[in-house]
Amino acid sequence: METEYPYGPSVFRRVLLKLSGESFCRPGEGGISVDEVSRIARQASRVASRGVELAIVVGGGNILRGATLSRGSDVIKEATAHYMGMTATVINGLALQDALEGLGCETRLLTTIRMDEIAEPFIRRRALSHLSRGRVVVLATGTGSPFVTTDTAAALRGKELGVEVLMKATRVDGVYSADPEKNPHAVRYDNLTYEQVMRDDLKVMDMTAIGMCLDNNLPILVFNFKKEGNIERAIAGEPIGTWVNNARRPQR
Fold first, then answer.
1. pTM of the model
2. What is the CATH number of the domain that holds 187?
3. Measured on CA atoms in the order 191, 195, 201, 206, is the torsion positive or negative?
């Protein structure tokens, strides 16, 4: 008997979800909120239960943002601050891994900086093997190099792992012409091209990540994951958020 899902079957086989560090805390706060981690884990586990192969790249800005720490300081060098930021992503990754496994979702935490006691090293073939076995793969420490954002790491891993879409989780329901939290007249876009994003300097992801997605024709979906069920709606092809690509949004 075919399983019925509340939002319909998935239109994707393999996706990458990019979570900023702010996803792990309450708005305006820092650190880790157990409630927010649980919210992420519930949605991600339901996606995995549909048979969708799910990789998640986590940021660490809720704990430490390397670029901010080093700004205007001669005490901590910029490269060192970036490495500190990378280790912050591991804290979020560990929290998410435990939350997912608490829901019965088999998970693997992979890092580009070796931390053998708590995570596996990122090896592309190993990550692909985990995905094919139905395990959620949580990717921490970005690319493992300083001066590279976790957005760019998400674009890179998306291409490496052959995902069909890079899902950029935010707290607003898509890409706007201006910050909708500051400008009530900001216009939301349903679809954008990579060129429009770069030309208008829209705050989707950093320009290196956008350029990488353009070069590799990797679609980006920017959506509000704080709304319960939105990750499932997105993978089911419902018209939510803003699509960035060179075609129309995928349909059921």
1. 0.92
2. 3.40.1160.10
3. positive
